[in-house]
Amino acid sequence: MDVQQFKSYLHELFGPLLTAFQEDEEYGFCNFTLNHYERIAYATNITPELIAQAAEHNVQMLITHHDAWDFVYGMKEKCVELLNQYQIAHCYIHLPLDYVEFGTCTSLLKRLGVSKMVQYSRNMDGYSAIGIGELETPVALEKLVGTMTDVLGEKVFFQKNSNQEIKRIGMVTGAGNGTDQLKEALDSGCDVYITGEKTLYTVQYAKFINLNIMVGSHTFTEIFGVESLAQKLKERFDELEIIQLQEEHNEVIL
């Protein structure tokens, strides 16, 4: 896969979403010094440790959901330094991957057994509208918690605020902890709301409106969207070797 093929395919997959978020730096490229790439790794985040791990696997390109955050002071500069040192290209796709139909929310919903997508997550004037999916057969909240625990490979926080069995699931992966999103889930008839960060306001409001809530980590609620993108690249460019980097379960959910 050459560089132009890669970038053209991203535009094919994401369409106007790339243009819409170009000025907001919600996706980008770094250190694309090679013309041809055969070995690609993916992860939710980029950190110095993950770049070193990619180098151990002789990876030529790293694809992530997040860029290094500017407010994690100094880390972005260190990541760029290491990418240059190891001659690894980096591409990150943030909000476009959240809002594309095969993206972060849809990918996790399908892992949880959703058979029907009612609404895809989308951008509404800077606000992430929830994705909504339905299970074919309603299940107890505790059973869905068990499924999500197995899927994420980590402890899942949950708050049972209703005895309603779960059929309709509302979700925003990652930092979907706004009360606006919980209200949208309530107004849309969801039986549970799932996200990747927990705040005081999240749990207070969920309890107040009697809406069940489940919370995993930011990293592992979003990894399956990156995996979906990597799989699409593999389907288009069969010669690619795709590797998932191993990230730590270090976001404690109490």
From TrEMBL:
Record keyword Ribosomal protein present: no
SUPFAM superfamilies: NIF3 (NGG1p interacting factor 3)-like (SSF102705)
Keyword Metal-binding: yes
One Pfam family linked to the record: DUF34_NIF3
Keywords noted in UniProt: Metal-binding
Signal peptide (residue range): none
Family of this protein: Belongs to the GTP cyclohydrolase I type 2/NIF3 family.
Protein name, entry field: GTP cyclohydrolase 1 type 2 homolog
Species the sequence originates in: Paenibacillus filicis
